[in-house]
Design goal:
213 residues; alpha/beta; 5-stranded parallel beta sheet; 7 helices; 5 strands; 43% helix; Glycosyl hydrolase family 26
Length: 213
């Protein structure tokens, strides 16, 4: 088996085990949508158990654009809000309140809404950090060196009234650019992913779901 294929298979297997240990994921999505059951959207105003939405922008701008997308779709109700935490610095991965407040307000306005948050596993996530350094960082994470950052994020989400946020942790881990990629050490990546889930679930009042992607 080619080396690249072995790497991808190893990473996927590690993530699957993490998922089973971590307690489940959010719903599957059809291409181009955030959907809890993958069904196609019905006509505007039609009753449906499917929640739809789209990633539109970071921070408050993403919230304001949801109304524009709804109008463009003929008045379709958007029940999924989706954004990414910045991965430049730990302080931003911890979820700066001014970044999350608008999303929390949107989520709380309707009990049927869902908030999906992509969370980087390491800072400098888009700086093309070399493999040897990524390996060291993943091992440090697996040893618990970064637990406090994810505890703070969980506390902030609970404090903002969104304890049921769907956490998309370490997305696209089988890539070659993000610092939170698994390639340099799949075993350490798996252990680190599980450790983050454990740290966040230890926060009182949380009801998070973790979606592996």
């Amino acid at each position: 088996m080619p080396a690249k294929r072995r790497l991808i298979v190893s990473c996927i297997a590690a993530a699957a085990l993490s998922l089973l240990a971590g307690g489940g994921i959010a719903g599957q999505s059809s291409p181009g949508t955030d959907s809890v059951d993958g069904a196609a959207p019905g006509p505007p105003g039609a009753a449906s158990s499917t929640a739809h939405g789209a990633y539109l922008d970071y921070g408050p701008a993403g919230v304001s654009r949801m109304a524009e997308l709804s109008r463009w779709l003929g008045g379709a109700e958007l029940r999924v809000g989706h954004t990414y935490l910045p991965g430049d610095l730990w302080v931003n991965i911890e979820g700066a309140p001014d970044f999350l407040e608008a999303w929390a307000d949107w989520r709380q306005a309707d009990p049927d809404r869902m908030f999906v948050l992509n969370v980087p596993m390491l800072e400098r996530n888009e700086e093309r950090v070399p493999d040897d350094e990524v390996r060291t960082l993943l091992r440090a994470g697996a040893a618990g060196d970064y637990d406090q950052h994810f505890t703070r994020l969980a506390e902030r989400l609970v404090g903002l009234g969104v304890p049921d946020t769907v956490i998309v942790l370490g997305w696209e881990m089988n890539g070659t650019t993000y610092t939170h990629r698994c390639g340099p050490d799949p075993a350490a990546w798996k252990a680190y992913w599980e450790r983050i889930v454990t740290a966040m679930r230890a926060v009182p009042g949380q009801d998070f779901r973790f979606d592996f992607t």
